[in-house]
Write a structure and sequence with these properties.
This protein is of the alpha/beta class. It is 37% helix and 14% strand. It has seven helices and six strands.
């Protein structure tokens, strides 16, 4: 009989139990099981950017979500903790472009064209997005990994409302010509969400505040202000 280690060795314990949970689909959500007696409970993970790896902030955030998800399962809820990663837009474009320049493949992203550049972005996502997912698994995150999403996927993008379907929206367009010698115009589309803006108080609608007595040696006056 082997001796019990003097110090806790997580590598020999956590990976084994995590695989046990995955094999038995402990984290998989099934809509068919939802009922009055087993209500649905869901959390959408704030998708970490694929531009790097998880930080301590991610670890804290996801630990809290994991606690909530596991507690809900223990209370009898049908739980879906939806995992995913974010394409990070300009940040990812910048990182990928910098990498390609270091490799001597391009001087500017336009050198390989849009489609080829997008292929490189997807390659970056497969590499770094996979690292992030594996980090979450090493943390013990009880996500439903069969539903992992990426914000650049067609399914994710197509589920977003288009500007024409936004409520009470007004379109403002302004086109600025490019420098001489080019034929295309640089257009900027600004969508003003009137319904959203109406919910934001204007300065005139802010509650009145008394002027603070910035310079006063009178404690009573300071307390009143």
């Amino acid at each position: 009989m082997s001796e019990i280690p003097k110090a806790y060795e997580p590598h020999s314990v956590e990976s084994r139990w995590y695989q046990y949970w995955l094999d038995r689909k402990c984290f998989a959500a099934d809509p068919a099981r939802v009922s009055d007696k087993r209500p649905a409970y869901s959390i959408v993970i704030p998708p970490p950017n694929v531009t790097g790896v998880l930080t301590l902030g991610h670890v804290l955030n996801n630990t809290i979500q994991d606690i909530l998800a596991r507690r809900a399962r223990m209370l009898g809820y049908e739980v879906l903790w939806l995992p995913g990663t974010d394409h990070a837009g300009i940040a990812t474009q910048t990182v990928v472009e910098r990498t390609l320049k270091k490799q001597g493949l391009i001087k500017h992203r336009d050198d390989i064209g849009r489609e080829k550049f997008l292929e490189k972005v997807w390659e970056w996502k497969e590499k770094h997005g996979g690292i992030i997912i594996e980090q979450l698994k090493r943390l013990g995150a009880s996500c439903d990994w069969t539903r992992t999403r990426f914000t650049m996927e067609t399914a994710s993008a197509s589920s977003l409302p288009t500007p024409s379907t936004w409520p009470n929206s007004t379109k403002v367009a302004s086109c600025t010509p490019r420098p001489a010698g080019t034929t295309k115009a640089r257009c900027r589309m600004v969508w003003v969400m009137l319904s959203r803006m109406s919910a934001v108080p204007t300065p005139t609608g802010w509650p009145k505040r008394r002027k603070a007595n910035h310079i006063s040696n009178d404690p009573a006056a300071s307390a009143r202000n």
